[in-house]
Amino acid sequence: MTKKQFQAESKRLLEMMINSIYSQKEIFLRELISNSSDAIDKIYYRALTDDTLKFDKDSYYIKVEADKDSRTLKLSDSGIGMTKDELENNLGTIAKSGSLAFKKENEIKDGHDIIGQFGVGFYSAFMVADVVTVITKALDSEAAYKWESEGADGYTIEEVEKDTIGTEIILKIKENTEDETYDEYLEEYRLKSIIKKYSDFIRYPIKMDVTSQRPKDGSENEFEEYQEEQTINSMVPLWRKNKNELTDEDYENFYQEKHYGFDKPLKHIHISVDGAIRYNAILFIPENMPFDYYTKEFEKGLELYSSGVLIMNKCADLLPDYFSFVKGMVDSEDLSLNISREILQHDRQLKLIAKNIKNKIKGQLQSLLKDEREKYEKFFETFGRQLKYGVYSDFGQYKEDLQDLLMFYSSKEKKLVTLAEYIERMPDDQKYIYYASGETHERIEKLPQTEMVLDKGYEILYFTDEIDEFAIKMLLSYKEKEFKSVSSGDLGIDDENEKQAESEENESKELFDYMKEVLSGKVKNVKASKRLKSHPVCISTEGDVSIEMEKVLKAMPNNQNIQADKVLEININHDVFQSLKAAFDQDKDKLTLYTNLLYNQALLIEGLPIQDPVDFTNDICKVMV
Ligand code: ADP
Ligand code: MG
Fold this sequence. Notes:
By secondary structure, the chain is α+β, with helices and mostly antiparallel strands. It folds into four domains: about 10-230, Histidine kinase-like ATPase, C-terminal domain (Heat Shock Protein 90); about 240-370, Ribosomal Protein S5, domain 2, CATH 3.30.230; about 400-485, Rossmann fold (3-Layer(aba) Sandwich), CATH 3.40.50.11260; about 495-625, Four Helix Bundle (Hemerythrin (Met), subunit A), CATH 1.20.120. About 35% of the residues lie in helices and about 20% in strands. It has a nine-stranded mixed β-sheet with strand order 1-6-5-4-7-3-2-8-9, with helices on one face. A hairpin with a 3-residue loop joins strand 10 and strand 11 (about 280-285). Adenosine-5'-diphosphate binds near residues 31, 36, 80, 91 and 120.
């Protein structure tokens, strides 16, 4: 028996590859199982055209056996096997894929899909094994052969006895080193979990002798271990099944089996696309927010399968950030993967799939909103903020996609409403979509600024999320109606109030100027209010920064001390205004005192801190004494 060298370049390539292209050692099992599955597929294809061959799916299997004593891991399959030539060509030449050649020769385009294409997967076995032995008997061959290699050195081939058609691959698992453990690849539990993780949807049974316990004969508390052959993989991927045959429970089980979450899915989305791009996907909108959703640890992404074999655990490119709460998987036969099958070669297909998925999710959310309102509201309460972040992010480029999905709490309905519903209800004379910001609904309800708008019978949207106003600033308008804060300088409401306020402002110009002087540096202006009905004062803002935005910006690390341009508005129909006028005529000190009091009062109503609480309380005492 002579030892043959791997072909020249192969030798270096092999060394390089074994240690560098795969990021995880455990994938060797995925590669070997995929090869076995391909080998069985090949018999299936042959049987399609060869009448003397019968393909009985049930008699094909892959078996995994570990033996700790001899440190060997054996994979057997009842696939097509390899002839001596094929052993030389396919295992002796790296980057030569017998499977790719088979696909070409047989002009196989779709249907059952053969996984192999690069001709390197097999060598990943050397990441965990010192010696790899292949014993194989091909469908077309009388003789069986043994191929053996210790890695970069080369390989030997000799004839051996083997009764059945198929292949056995025996790995002599490496000894543990200081930094690497290999023992785990002989552990039943570990092997099972690797198979489950990567090869759960291989179409043929992957069997293992699994150790279980049972009570000893005639004994109640003594147990004995016994071995039983079990099929580890679930074989038929849920996503290839017909939607009509699946129940909600099937999807819920899948969600749990896949550990997508501890909760139940609120909604599942089953997609099968067969056109310019082909893929299957099962997506879920979770019922609850993952506990780490707003932490650095949270990673968005979908599981990515290529022809039923797991390629990536969390493919982030498949989901936009604003749908990052979606869980699930995508399987496609059309992906061109790089050699380690860990990275996608071209992201064109992936981009197409991602776009398609985004539209499907959006469509499903829209129909949830239309047909299952309660569920949608629950969804929105949980993940709505993410959609609002989406409107705001990347200079508002996704706002068209998302605006119909937004909801806000309404003063009229006392529940969440959509912008479309708001517009629908608007009276003819209403020009703007009004909103009010505050920490809670209760606080907003009491805001003096809302008086006038409510008095006109207009609906107000309550903004209690920090992101709300920022998102709306990005949105600007909805169906050509602009958004307007009830605290903004001009409310756009023509009213008696307006004219009265203007004339009073002219009449009492000196009074307002004096108050402005008292509050210089604190407010931009003091003026007669057009929006107050019963409250004495309020603060409104000019310009782009609102009070709520000022609060958010202040709370940010290294804030730029951005301030809203505040205006103190006085209700000229309130008795307080008469007191101000009297003080202006008789006692300027009193007017200063009143002005400060009213200003601080307005700050408190807005939920803003007052600069000097001691001064404020002293001022109140002065009024009382
Ligand atoms: P690929 O699977 O990408 O073709 P591999 O390095 O994994 O590359 O395998 C190389 C080739 O060896 C395969 O294409 C196939 O022809 C052959 N081969 C590997 N394992 C088996 C097996 N269990 N049964 C039959 N042929 C096999
Ligand atoms: Mg392979």
